[in-house]
Write a structure and sequence with these properties.
The structure holds 2 protein chains of 2 kinds. Chain A is mainly alpha-helical. Chain A has 7 helices and 1 strand, in the order αααααααβ. Chain B is α+β, with helices and mostly antiparallel strands. A 3-stranded antiparallel sheet of chain B has the order 1-3-2.
Chain lengths: 205, 98
């Protein structure tokens, strides 16, 4: 009898730890879609602008537009992150530090790879640059997926495959295809994740 | 004296439900389907355990419509929160006395 009760208490403790971990991960997914929606909209604008500038033969303005969009993206990401931290105490989201470190590592390695290419005399242009940065970002989503669940990893893999498909078979319509891809996979994925992991505040309901 | 475990909470599925709702935080509620997916339970299983927890006043079940879709939200009551904290305290005591 005593042994049975021991086992039951131990089992309960394991259940509690496991349920706590699962719920905490679910909570950390909450509003993760906001990042996807933000970057999806910015990429949609960027690729649409690329297409317009291509038609108007104003190629040089493209870099300035992308730079402005990246600055807006970083500012938006910071605002979303601050909002998330305010909503949830940091103890709910211990994986956050690993996710942050993953993104920083990716950024550093992207710079290293670009440096290696430059040293070897290879410079990326047009579609190649788009693919390079997009797929590095998608690797980030796959890594986030490892911590936060398969939805993010699926978005990363699907977008990578689709981007390669666009580069190989839709070169003529690359900007339009990428604009639509950003809209569907990022914005659509973001809305799906936000809806799936919504937790409501009763007082506001 | 041997600490008493709350019999309503001390059941594997109900313990999991209580942990998840407690982790949400005060005044927060989760949709029925999200809780079902999170805990990997069937609709019927979750419903029956929630009914037991609601009966003793540990959880609140709010049914509403969002557009034309019926939605059910689950939250922990203050009584449920207190009961769960006491349950954890009792578990700790049992472990410490071993």
């Amino acid at each position: 009898m005593g042994k049975k009760e021991d086992f039951s208490v131990q089992e309960t403790l394991i259940e509690i730890t496991e349920s706590f971990r699962k719920t905490r991960i679910a909570l950390s997914k909450q509003r993760t879609g906001d990042y996807l929606i933000l970057w999806g909209l910015l990429m949609f604008l960027g690729y649409t602008a690329n297409e317009m500038l291509w038609i108007l033969s104003m190629y040089k303005t493209g870099a300035l537009i992308w730079l402005s969009l990246i600055v807006i993206g970083i500012a938006g990401t910071t605002i979303i992150t601050i909002k998330r931290i305010k909503q949830r105490a940091s103890e709910y989201f211990p994986e956050g530090i690993y996710i942050g470190l993953s993104w920083i590592s990716l950024l550093i390695y992207a710079i290293i790879f670009l440096g290696i290419l430059k040293i070897t005399g290879i410079s990326l242009q047009g579609i190649q640059t788009s693919l390079f940065f997009l797929n590095f970002a998608m690797l980030g989503y796959v890594l986030m997926g490892i911590f936060l669940g398969k939805e993010l990893a699926i978005i990363g893999i699907v977008t990578s495959i689709a981007s390669l498909f666009c580069a190989l078979f839709l070169k003529e319509f690359f900007n339009i295809a990428m604009a639509l891809l950003s809209l569907f996979s990022f914005v659509g994925g973001g809305i799906y994740i936000n809806k799936k992991w919504s937790v409501k505040n009763e007082t506001r309901a | 004296m041997k600490p008493e475990l709350d019999e309503i909470i001390h059941q594997p599925t109900r313990t999991k439900i209580m942990v998840s709702l407690y982790t949400l935080g005060e005044n927060e509620e989760i949709e029925f389907i999200n809780l079902r997916d999170l805990l990997n339970l069937s609709d019927g299983n979750l419903s029956s355990h929630l009914a037991k927890l609601e009966e003793v006043g540990y959880v609140k079940i709010r049914k509403t419509f969002e557009g034309k879709k019926p939605k059910t939200y689950i939250s922990l009551t203050a009584k449920g929160r207190k009961a769960f904290e006491n349950y954890i305290k009792a578990l700790k005591k049992i472990v410490e006395t071993k």
